[in-house]
Amino acid sequence: MSTLLELRGVETGYHGVPVVHDLDLTVGEGEVVALLGANGAGKTTVLNTIAGLVPRTGGSLSVLGAPVSSRQRGAQRRTLDVVRRGVGYVPEDRALFYDLTAIENVRLAAARRDRAAVAAALDLFPALAPLTGRAAGLLSGGEQQMLAVARALAARPRLLMIDEMSLGLAPIIAERLLASIRKIADDTGTGILLVEQQVGAVLRVADRAYLLRRGRVVVEGRAADLRARPDLLASSYLGSG
Amino acid sequence: MSNEPLLDVSLLSVTFGGVRAVDDVSFAVGESELVGLIGPNGAGKTTCIDALSGFVPNAAGRVTFEGRDISNWPAHRRARAGIVRTFQSVELFEDLTLNENLVVAATDAKWWSPLADAVWPRRGWSDDIEWALEAVGLQGKGELFPTELAPGSSRLAALARALVRRPRLILLDEPAAGLNTYETEMLADRLRALPPLGVSVLLIDHDTSLVFGTCGTVHVLDFGRVISSGPPAVVRADPAVIEAYLGTVTEP
Amino acid sequence: MLTHRASGVINFAHAALGMYVAYAYYKLRQTGELVLPILGLPDRVKIVDAPTVFTAMSVAVALSAVLGLLVYLLVFRWLRTAPALARVVASLGLLLYFVAIVKLRFDRSAGQLPLGAILPAGSVTVSGVAVPYNRLILAAIALAVATVLAVVFKFTRFGMATRAAAENEKGALIVGHSPDKLAVVNWTVASVLAGVSVIFIASVTKQLDPLSTSLLVVPALAAVLVGGLRSFFVTSFAALTIGMLQAGLLNYSTRSTWIPSWLPRSGLNHALPFLVIVIALTVRGASLPGRHEIRESRLPFSPRPRHVVPVTVVGVGLTAAGLLTLDSQWRLAIVVSLIASLIALSSVVLTGYVGQISLAQYAFAGLAGFVTAKLTEARGIPFPWAPLIAVALTTLCGVLVGLPAARVRGLVLAVVTVGAAVAIENLAFKSEALGGLGRVQIDRPELFGLDLGFSAKGADNFRAEFGIFVLIVVACSFIAIANLRRSPTGLRWLAVRANERAAAACGINVTSMKLEAFAVSSMLAGMGGVLLAYRGSLAPESFAVFGALALLAVTYLGGIASITGALLAGVLFSGGILTHVSGGTTGGTSDTAFAVSGLALVIAAVRTPDGVVGFFRRRGAGAGMRLRARAATGDGDSSAMAGSVEAR
Lengths: 241, 252, 648
Prior knowledge:
The structure holds 3 protein chains of 3 kinds. By secondary structure, chain A is of the alpha/beta class. Chain A has one domain (3-94, 159-238): 3-Layer(aba) Sandwich (Rossmann fold). Chain A is 37% helix and 27% strand. In chain A, a hairpin with a 2-residue loop joins strand 1 (3-14) and strand 2 (17-28). In chain A, helix 3 (102-109) packs parallel to helix 5 and helix 4 packs antiparallel against helix 5. The longest helix of chain A is centred in the C-terminal third of the chain and has 18 residues, at 171-188. The model of chain A has no long low-confidence stretch (mean pLDDT 83). Chain B has 2 domains: 1-82 and 167-252, P-loop containing nucleotide triphosphate hydrolases (Rossmann fold, 3-Layer(aba) Sandwich); 91-166, no CATH class. In chain B, the strands form 2 sheets. Chain B has a 6-stranded mixed sheet with strand order 6-7-8-3-9-10, sandwiched between helices. Chain B has a 4-stranded antiparallel sheet with strand order 2-1-4-5, with helices on one face. In chain B, helix 3 packs parallel to helix 6 (151-163) and helix 5 (127-136) packs across helix 6. In chain B, 35% of the residues lie in helices and 23% in strands. By secondary structure, chain C is an all-alpha fold. Chain C has a domain at 308-573: ABC transporter involved in vitamin B12 uptake, BtuC, CATH 1.10.3470. Chain C has helices at residues 2-7, 14-31, 53-74, 84-105, 133-155, 157-167, 169-174, 179-205, 210-214, 217-226, 232-255, 268-284, 308-325, 328-353, 361-379, 385-402, 411-429, 464-486, 488-498, 500-505, 510-535, 545-558, 563-572, 577-581, 591-607, 611-621, 626-633; strands at residues 33-35, 44-46, 123-126, 129-132, 446-447, 450-451. Mean pLDDT of chain C is 68; it is low at 1-9, 249-266, 290-297 and 619-648. Chains in contact: A-B, A-C, B-C. At the B-C interface, helix 2, helix 3 and helix 4 of B face helix 18, helix 19, helix 20, helix 21 and helix 27 of C.
């Protein structure tokens, strides 16, 4: 199993204020990795750093075998570079194009004339089938969520990062989505990094998990082991007091 | 009158393009009370504060404050009436010093103020400014610009700007975001000191230990609805709350 | 509009670029020479001896493509995340530059360029009105272009990507499309369209003039705003409708009797875009920005005035001494600078302090001047009362123009005010009741038996008494504004500028603050206008929109958010002290100066948003430590700017 993503001692933050400290993290081929932690722990910042939207201030980062530059300038070029290597990213705000129709959103992400990828991505979400001609802005929150994931998948990514996929989704739909993501990883060898609030559900599909607290990894291990320690998770989210 | 709560929210709903972000929410904040509002990301907490402070129109429901129906009041009128708020992203006026930030909040404009000010400039100074800075522990920092404050201090500064009006009710949106453990403790102490001064607090924060540690009553929102209410100990043990936060952790 | 799609810029220079290309085209047709638009390069190059329509058109297309590309790469690319003000100012700078360069490099007798017909002549009669073929063809071409664009944007990958990138740059990035490349292509196409369409319009209307052609951008922007910056079809239909209504109004009003005689018949059609803009916008806007509205980067820093009393004493003393001792030309220059700084101050209040971009200040000044003239002339109202009434009226007018500002902000507001300026210019200045197109002569001001007139009777000799009078008015206004800036009122204004949401949370009624600022600033502009009126004769062209742009430009150069900036703007204003010192014709304008100031403006917008004042402050404080230095050095940096009213 080859390593798709490797972070070593990464430090990153905004405007000189570090948010994430000394982070080691890897994602291998076909692996589903969960990044957990309370709000404000720095999970989203980690994803943004990998995508090149936020420059890191220390450590090394390699994506799909090649290092990612940490220069302050050229964020656009850096992100384009990472994306074109084969990284799909579903950011927390979805960054959908609300004025475009659903199918246009997906087509834009797919390679030119890669109709099969568009169809395959949409097939995963039967709920979207009747809505492909509708402007993305008119879809419901859950539908937008699915669309964002479909858009990322249409580019046939080798590494897929999804931030808060189940946000605003009914639990049953979130679980179905997670199951299809597991399947994508198994079938295509895509590495998947999930930031997730639905801890229980995500731990059922993930291989490994990292638990962040105030920008540092406090627990790291196999998902099955973490699942056996609900007390640990609860204290991290709801406080121990 | 004395039995009536300070703020009474009944069946409040807010919709964005057909989506109900806040759905039939009802709760009350009494005189000198600390009330917490928690919930997972996207549960509608901030929208709730936006609606209470007049920043988004409410689709349905009634909000009464001191017995008056304020449901349709614009934001600035609510602030003048005694409901102030802070923002998740601090939002201090960056071109103004801390003192000036507080002056803006402490003085109300009259129609003649430009005329008066043009002839005789006032500094707009009042004891309330001193008091508010002291209440958050920023005395002596009034001449600094917001960009010169540590992130933790600028949150406190925003709190001071809200307090300087000596409001009856203050709505706090994530006041502890970005604070370290020590600063959060300090903040908790300062919040506990507010009700005795006649200021009621509605606190939103994702640091649940802060909310549980300071508030007498906690309401939990999920998908825009109140799913649990009560004292911290009760809410924390509520299975509905645990599920909202963690999903079903144990194997089905 | 395509430009906006590509990079979120409402480009006031769009028609100006087209205007330049059109000039180049017709010059090329005439002499076979291509006139280059860049200062420092040779004026013109010979291409071919007698170019055909086709050759000339190809060259024109290439020229506009290159220009569009240069404009994007050198200017707007760097302003993608800049405040709306910087983008407005940059495009105004370009507009000034293009207009000036055309005046410089083409014959003054520009009207004599052969505006050869490209489209066939002839006409059809539609419901009693003869409509020439060429206009119909032009309209058809416009609709066809709109159709092609709409189709391209709807169905091609490129079009989808452009729409996507305009809406969400981050989204475009994470699906692998470069917003930069898309913008380059769109700017090029948009410039070519502008160039070609102005060539055609000129050939049909037989009109090509640096100023009025450049201002075609106003009705165009009106149409764009109706289209909501999105729909090509709605936009082009709106444009055609506005155009037809304008023509219809012109036609109708010259024949009809119900339109009140005080309304200028030719002006009404120019005021139409303004009405369209206002109606379109007030329907759309919201009174407070939403939670997720993108935060623009900071506006220029607004320093707190210090040492007001000593600086005033010294400044007034020096100026008075100058007025009393120097020669007549100097006195004229000083008076021009003083008045210009007063009008600039009105921009400082509105734009610098409250963040409302207004291009109508100069028009307000003109309005007050004309009302004064009319009141003294026609009604016989004597000196102190006529100007007071005029200023009051202007203030009211300012509040009216400010009403849309309650619901719109940024670039869109700039468009509204340009529309207002054009409307005032055409409705009031060209109105017969206010003196029509002729020059207005105004009575000499007298107060308590003191003759405050400007020029001595019968001689071209400017009197110092008037200068002192102006000086007193200007000094009082500056002190009043300095006081406001230091008091809670000024702080509230800055609070609104910084963050409308937070201001509302602090109990500030944002709408009434904006109106208050509109009132104060139009009052200042009105006072400036009255003084201008008493300076000498008034002519409508002296308050044209172009002057307003130039004024905002120098104010921005001086420093839009500070009182010192307004003073500097007065010095820089063409016809003022700087022009006199550098040997220019006082009171007139020099095209080279316009070209240079246009360029300077573009550079200023890209590099130093704080203007000259900020530039010196930064030099004094040390680069890179700007924010810290602001607080830390306090008094120290006032020495960096001799005569500065403010420190920090």
